[in-house]
Amino acid sequence: MPSEKPLSHARRQAPDAAAVTTSTMPDAARASSVRERDTGTRLLSLHTPVAASAVDDEQSAEMRIETHIYRTIVDGVLAHRLTPGTKLPEPELCQLFDVGRAVVRRVLDRLAHDGIVTLRPNKGAVIAEPTPQETREIFEARRALERSLVALAVERVTHDDLAMLRRQLDAEHAAMHRFDQPSWARLASDFHLRVAALAGNAVLLRYLTELISRCSLIVGLYEPPGYAPCEHDEHTAIVACIEQRDAEGAIARMQSHLEELERRIETTRMRGQKSLASLLGLPEVAPAEDAVPAPPPVKRASRKRG
């Protein structure tokens, strides 16, 4: 019999407290807990780059820096500071975040993978500009997918799931009333992923995660400033239907909600002429060539020939 392969570092570790606690829960509560943890992973992947396991402190610090840069750019999009076509020059990003080009390029690659930036050969990165046709197709796909997910969520929701959704609504309400646009935008996306997770279908949840990432970009780029990405009252109405086990009502509310969101998209936003630092919400940094003023040219006196 061939010898067993050695366990990986991750598998050799002792189970954490959450895992031990989950194993002692009733079946329904355990399923709800597992769903919520899986949703948390999806929410993290939606807002931050996916990091490999850190093998030392230096790598962990580097991944934290990449996450910070990624989130700063995403928040700039969601807060309407970074508009379609805004250039993201590598040298300026390196200077603003005090990192090397390798770090900046990894972040830009992740942003391009998520559809937030476009990498142009020999011209650098710019904030992506989804076309009207792409916008229609993305919202059409999202409506079709969320219709199925909501129906499954109503069928499988538990009391613990409903308590989680109420906590989500409370967090939205708090962010809305403190006028925290980046947090509200993230929470608006999180709501849809949390509802989808109740369906218990990891494949559909993964597809929706990608669609929501694309929709968040479109909403952040094109929705008129001052508008909420989602209406809190609409989310509340959807939760009420789920709580009543009203599948038709929940589907109708969700479809109307997504249709209204698409109608609010404004694809003729004017672009500003601000610096990259101000667009990212960072303090201005003087260009390296301007840090030390160059001395004035010295004029040499012409020599007269005898």
Report on the architecture of this protein:
InterPro entries: GntR_C, TF_FadR/GntR_C, Tscrpt_reg_HTH_GntR, WH-like_DNA-bd_sf, WH_DNA-bd_sf. This is HTH-type transcriptional repressor RspR. Residues 244-271 form a coiled coil. By secondary structure, this protein is mostly helical. Among the domains are: 59-129, Arc Repressor Mutant, subunit A; 132-264, Four Helix Bundle (Hemerythrin (Met), subunit A), CATH 1.20.120. Helices cover 63% and strands 3% of the residues. The chain has 14 helices and three strands. The protein has a three-stranded antiparallel β-sheet. The longest helix is centred in the middle third of the chain and has 25 residues, at 132-156.
SSE blueprint:
Elements: H1 9-12, H2 17-23, H3 27-47, H4 57-78, E1 87-88, H5 90-97, H6 101-113, E2 117-120, E3 124-127, H7 132-156, H8 159-177, H9 181-197, H10 202-222, H11 232-243, H12 247-263, H13 276-279, H14 288-291
Antiparallel strand pairs: 1-3, 2-3
Helix pairs in contact: 3-9, 3-10, 4-6, 5-6, 7-9, 7-10, 7-12, 8-9, 8-11, 9-10, 11-12
